[in-house]
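Supplementary Text 2. Reproducibility record for the structural model of the 301-residue chain.

All settings were left at their defaults, and a single model was retained for analysis rather than an ensemble. We include the record here because the model underlies the residue-level annotations in Supplementary Table 4.
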Amino acid sequence: MPLRLIQRLAFGVVGSLLLLGLLVAASIPIEGLLGHERVEAVSNVEIPGSGTIIHAHVARPSGPGPHPAVVMLHEWWGLNAELASKVDALASEGYVVVAPDTFRGSTTAWIPRAIYQVSSTPTARVNSDLDAVYAWLAEQPDVARDRIGVVGFCYGGRAAVNYSLHNPALASTVTFYGMATTDSAELRALPGPVLGIFGGADNSISLEEVREFEAGLRAAGIPSQVTVYEGQPHAFVKGADEIQRDPVQKAAWSEMLSFLRESLQQPAAAKGSPALASHGHHADAPPMDVLSLALHSLQGH
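Retained model, structure tokens:
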């Protein structure tokens, strides 16, 4: 092949890659412009924050309460209909649930925009917004303010742990495939028990990291349960309808419900000192096998 032809082909490939990069870069702000309407479409409450209005999707159980409450944090896509369906499903179990928009008006289904959302959102700002959400939630007349927990998925799982490290008033933490730190000295600041749910085939979080997280919680003396669902990828728990159809997703959701019943349903003064067993979970195991291993009396903590 003549050298000149090779050069032309090389320039063509490089030019195409540069053009593709420019198109992707341009799509990020364009996609961001569409996010505000999507967030407003799925939110039903506006919460005053520090110099901002925090949009959120809120669902309540029937009855006057006071009910335990959960702050539910979205994936890197942002606040969307899939998360709202999980909010509604959890509320039907007896919780006041609020899912705030931590990206301040941005939600997407486009991976480059999702990456930008996460990378451009500082943890300190998220914690500040969640302080406003927590304060709003604690003031609701149907909420038991001493029984508020946090649950997060993916990016939201990491944000949930980070917020628990920040807010000592939280009663419990659930992280679905979200990793913030494995350092026992840092994890010691967690104010309550922790449930971690991970996929055994997760390409984002390795099993080694999961075990380090598990060991860090144990060394920190935090009552905890870390479950690995073998063969499951990252973000394997979807919307409410899919959770009901898929036995593995339903088992993970049921495990969370069992954990929240133990950590949030009882008044704080009536709780004992539960310890949570760390264990693996196979996709073909019945859901009740998970639940029966969840809790045992705490010795030596």
